[in-house]
Amino acid sequence: GENVEQHPSTLSVQEGDSAVIKCTYSDSASNYFPWYKQELGKRPQLIIDIRSNVGEKKDQRIAVTLNKTAKHFSLHITETQPEDSAVYFCAARQSGGSYIPTFGRGTSLIVHP
Amino acid sequence: DSGVTQTPKHLITATGQRVTLRCSPRSGDLSVYWYQQSLDQGLQFLIQYYNGEERAKGNILERFSAQQFPDLHSELNLSSLELGDSALYFCASSVSLNHEQFFGPGTRLTVL
């Protein structure tokens, strides 16, 4: 089955800095990679996703890059703000079979004002 | 608000008891997923239903069961509860199997 590794587990940055969270996956059949943001005590919310037919996707201050050859994908947040503080989860999923995503263990991002 | 609703928000019970968690998917969504989130385990997939039928099983204990009803709401039943079952239980739904999931607000279960 799929295995998703996520690093770092904790990331502390100053407001205005950039933050990068990296994930690797094991199953080359995975072709859909969503990222979720979970604020304390709240639900995970989809913030951006990428499919394997593109290498990069951007939405305002967040971007995701995908390297299919190396089987890794990353979340980039620029000009971080205190409200970006949350736990971020990456996931990988096939478009076929059970379509169940495998989640990384999460990264706790802390943005200091 | 994702449109997915879960009840109750909080549940406190004792070891050995049985509880039922309820989930209503977004209007039009046919697929429902259940996840367990504990501090040291991240988001663990439990079970998936699609249009009333079980579609996939993850790390779901035999003490746990679920079903999806004709109106597409789903219930997760947890029995013979243990202290280690204390966790946040999330339901998510999607339009179909190949679409993004939207999570409900979760049910926080505390087993004393």
List keywords for this structure.
heterodimer, A: 113 residues, mainly beta, 6-stranded mixed β-sheet, B: 112 residues, 7-stranded mixed β-sheet, 4-stranded antiparallel β-sheet, 11 strands
Protein topology:
The complex is a heterodimer of chains A (113) and B (112).
Chain A: E1 4-7, E2 10-14, E3 19-25, E4 32-38, E5 45-51, E6 56-59, E7 62-67, E8 72-77, E9 86-92, E10 102-103, E11 107-112
Parallel strand pairs in A: 2-11
Antiparallel strand pairs in A: 1-3, 3-8, 4-5, 4-9, 6-7, 7-8, 9-10, 9-11
Chain B: E1 5-7, E2 10-13, E3 19-24, E4 31-38, E5 42-50, E6 53-57, E7 64-68, E8 74-78, E9 87-94, E10 102-103, E11 107-111
Parallel strand pairs in B: 2-11
Antiparallel strand pairs in B: 1-3, 3-8, 4-5, 4-9, 5-6, 7-8, 9-10, 9-11
General description of the model:
The complex is a heterodimer of chains A (113) and B (112). In chain A, strands 2, 4, 5, 9, 10 and 11 form a six-stranded mixed beta sheet that branches. Chain A is an all-beta fold and 113 residues long. Chain A has strands spanning 4-7, 10-14, 19-25, 32-38, 45-51, 56-59, 62-67, 72-77, 86-92, 102-103, 107-112. Chain A contains no helices and eleven strands. Chain B is an all-beta fold. Chain B is built from no helices and eleven strands. Chain B has strands at residues 5-7, 10-13, 19-24, 31-38, 42-50, 53-57, 64-68, 74-78, 87-94, 102-103, 107-111. In chain B, the strands form two sheets. In chain B, strands 2, 4, 5, 6, 9, 10 and 11 form a seven-stranded mixed beta sheet that branches. Chain B starts with a strand and ends with a strand. The relative contact order of chain B is 0.34. Chain A binds chain B through residues 32, 34, 36, 42-46, 49, 89, 95, 98-106, and chain B through 2, 33, 42-43, 45, 48, 55-56, 58, 90, 97-98, 100-106.
